[in-house]
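Usage

Read records sequentially. Each one opens with the input sequence:
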Amino acid sequence: MNKMPQLSVIIVTYNNENEIIPCLASLPWSAISMEIIVVDSHSADRTREMINRFHESRPEIPLFTFWRSYNEGYAKGINLGLRHCRGQYILILGPDTILQPGSIESMVELFKKGNRTGMVAPQLISANAEVLPSCRRFPVYKDIFLELTGLPRLFPGRIQPAWKMADFSHMEIKEVDQPEASCILVSREAFNEVGPMDERFTIFFNDVDWCRRFKQKNWNIWFFPKVKIIHKKGASIRSARIPMIWKSYQGLYRYFRKYHSSTVPEHFKSLLLIPCLVWTAALRSAFIFLFSNNR
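and closes with the structure output:
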């Protein structure tokens, strides 16, 4: 039997033919023992071909692929990888990211300091080295209803829901509620205690829910800006923007139903949230549709 790797990398792909090879090529193949698990969610482009070609050129690489016959959502893809991974640390990695040399080794060192560190996330930057906001607090009803008014979009410098952490520069190390799941490193011990992602959150809010469960089990989540990862945001989402709006609001509603409907007032708020989300999603969809047809 092969020796257990120190690191398992899980990548879920969907129509990422232009991003997947730079992502795979940036992994620290010689710096750390690892295995790569790629789960493809029934891509319609050349993603699978690109992955196979990459593996054929480097057959010594421990790269395992799962080709799904239809797209069942991001959470199921991640969980499929989690069921098969063996590493001491688990890296959830977006296919539209590029690691910098020494990234994984630096994040692993943070785990070794103890303090029940369950998850570490790096600073995300654009190809032009612009820092991308990637951390949020857990949302509450006040944040969401404020967001749905549209005021934060009209006055971005003056009105911001607290959950979006506009007060955080993303320049210092900080314990956070929820980092973006484009690149998160998880300890095996923490994962064994918390369990897999909740598959009811098919595409959106599965990471928010997962982080909340880490916190409920008293595992700490750290944002670590010493490590910088290039991220091409939304590469696989922009091609289906209108369906993704509705999926996003669906995930948000399910999150509030799960964590904020135990009392009568909270239950009433969750019911009030439904028409607000539908109305906002319809407006955003109409705007995108009209704008796209007028280009």
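Summary fields computed downstream for this record:
- The chain has a mean pLDDT of 91.
- The longest helix spans residues 264-293.
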